[in-house]
Specification:
The chain is mostly helical. The protein contains 14 helices and 9 strands.
């Protein structure tokens, strides 16, 4: 007679099997694949430490840095979707430097951010809580301080999941909008299952990722920004954009969110379908005829081709987005560890080119300038007239993450450091 095992036990077996499957693929680079020197990486990270200290001097105790625009610092409350990136950057740079003051600065921001664990009004809790508290748990190992916060936050995020749509709702308004950005919040859920032993969070992440593959992507592996669903039956109401040039365009940061998300989902599940899909997304991005030589994308891949009828043609068609480049660099570094041969070399070479570009003019700010932000020339949302050609907190976060990941490869360390 077959033994009936508890669901949680079966989940843990599945996780172990997924990890074993993932480990069959290359987990680290050989030094010959890596062309950036340790000195170059250290120079950029040391500069980032100096610059974030400049930023820290201007940040109010109850606010988070968002951007610097027109010689004016712009801050947010903790409910804004980018609130987790500043403490996350502080923690990454503490990890690099060992500077205890950076850890204390991060902890002070975590204290005001904690209340967002109860926020059920946003899908962005992965950005807000996992980039911050997740890194804090990873670096300190302090489960007493951070585990419960993360699990309460994961429960709040899960409350936005609709089993009929089979996806997590992004915004209010529309009908039931799901944006490609939401792929970035799934890592939070996979880690919550590891922390709790409850498979439901991971199951939501997997189902959402599969729904996104089915409905968000075009035959060329570019992604729509927004899919609007009917929550009653899961049918599609519309395929739209909010931040791209037009509904059928390839909004660049959205393409990067998707790539990062599916690279992560392969790591977390060992399901080769996610790796194959990530490769297809990467091919669309890296082989796009409008990808600039410096590998810092335009804000929309279709922007350079806009005709004069577009409201964005004259002024905005050639704006670059350093935040997209930062996300791509980090994702491609991880994708390079999941592949081999020419594929691996292609991904890591592109990541290196991006890091070189972002680490120099015109994208890198001089220390003490730019309001304390590391990078210049990012784009929030041109259609909304918001954060156009300015520094952005998440551009800095993913740039620092990419540098940290590259440094680990140089040193032969696990790519992600210790997991929570």
């Amino acid at each position: 007679m077959m033994t009936a095992f508890p669901k949680r036990f079966l989940f843990l077996l599945a996780v172990a099997a997924g990890v074993a499957s993932a480990c069959q693929h290359p987990a680290s680079q050989t030094n010959s694949d890596l062309q950036l020197s340790p000195e170059f990486i250290d120079e950029q990270l040391t500069g980032a430490v100096a610059q974030i200290n400049v930023l820290a001097d201007s940040v109010p105790a109850d606010r988070m840095p968002r951007t610097f625009q027109g010689d004016t610092s712009v801050f947010s409350n903790t409910g804004w979707w980018t609130s987790g990136f500043y403490p996350g950057s502080l923690l990454y740079l503490y990890e690099y430097s060992g500077d205890a003051e950076l850890l204390e600065l991060a902890k002070a921001k975590l204290a005001i951010l904690e209340k967002e664990k109860l926020n059920k009004g946003t899908h962005d809790l992965g950005f807000m809580l996992y980039c911050s508290f997740g890194n804090a748990l990873r670096l300190t190992g302090d489960t007493a301080a951070y585990k419960e916060i993360l699990l309460i936050g994961a429960e709040s995020l899960s409350s936005r999941y609709n089993p009929v749509v089979k996806a997590i709702r992004s915004w209010e308004g529309w009908t039931y909008p799901v944006i490609i950005d939401n792929m970035m919040n799934l890592e939070f859920l996979t880690q919550a299952s590891k922390l709790s032993g409850d498979p439901k969070y991971r199951e939501i992440a997997v189902t959402h990722a599969n729904t996104t593959i089915k409905n968000h992507y075009r035959p060329d592996y570019s992604s729509y920004h927004v899919i609007d669903y009917n929550p009653a039956d899961g049918s599609i109401v519309g395929k739209k954009t909010a931040q791209g040039a037009f509904d059928e365009s390839a909004w660049s940061r959205g393409q990067a969110w998707g790539l990062y998300g599916y690279v992560m989902m392969y790591r977390e599940t060992g399901d080769g379908a996610y790796l194959d899909f990530a490769k297809h997304i990467a091919s669309f991005i890296l082989n796009h005829p409008n990808m600039p030589d410096d590998r810092v994308p335009y804000w929309d891949f279709d922007a350079p081709d806009l005709d004069e009828a577009s409201p964005y043609a004259a002024e905005y068609k050639t704006y670059r987005d350093a935040s997209t480049a930062s996300i791509l660099a980090s994702a491609l570094i991880e994708l390079s560890t999941q592949t081999s041969g020419d594929e691996r070399r292609g991904y890591i070479t592109t990541a290196e080119k991006i890091l070189q570009s972002l680490s120099s003019a015109p994208y890198k700010a001089e220390i003490g300038t730019n309001g304390g932000f590391i990078l210049k020339h990012s784009v929030g949302s041109i259609p909304h007239g918001s954060e156009i050609d300015v520094p952005l907190t998440y551009a800095d976060y993913y740039y620092v993450e990419a540098l940290i990941r590259y440094k680990r490869l140089l040193e032969g360390q696990p790519l992600l450091g210790r997991t929570p």
